[in-house]
Design goal:
single chain; 170 residues; Ferritin; two-stranded antiparallel ribbon; 4 helices
Amino acid sequence: MNFNNPYGQQMSPTEFMYPIINSQFENNQRLPVLGELSYDRLVKTIYDSIVAEATAAKFYTKLLDLAPNEIHREIIKYARNNELKHIESLTMLYVRLVGHIPHVKLEPIQISNYKAGILTALKAEIEAVDLYRDVQLVSMNPVIREPFYRAMVNKMEHANQFGEIYHSLS
């Protein structure tokens, strides 16, 4: 799997290096957290976020099959595509901190019906907004904050869209 760095150059995940704002840190050192979040807790949070994003992408792929119309399918596709982008940016951050791609195993997805699936999606998006906001509040490093900020903004948008869908089904 190859990634584009912030300057558009193709790099493998092990070669990918985020630009570090503070020049006192060498590229081979861990990124400074500069907040209340310990390094180990940050790595676990990033890993858990990757798993959650991958689970959401898989869930939305199944939810697409149940969507009653093209408008709903487009909203779900949009959310799924954003989840895939979040996986990529969080994986790059994880690789930068840990030095390897995380091994992620997903559980099977079950959706009882479309309306229940939309409600599940809505709740998951709201929970993710809270988590991603909290990570931003405890980290002073923009390299850590940026992927969580982007994901948080997308999650708020998804929550609004899934809320609209849910209420239209009532």
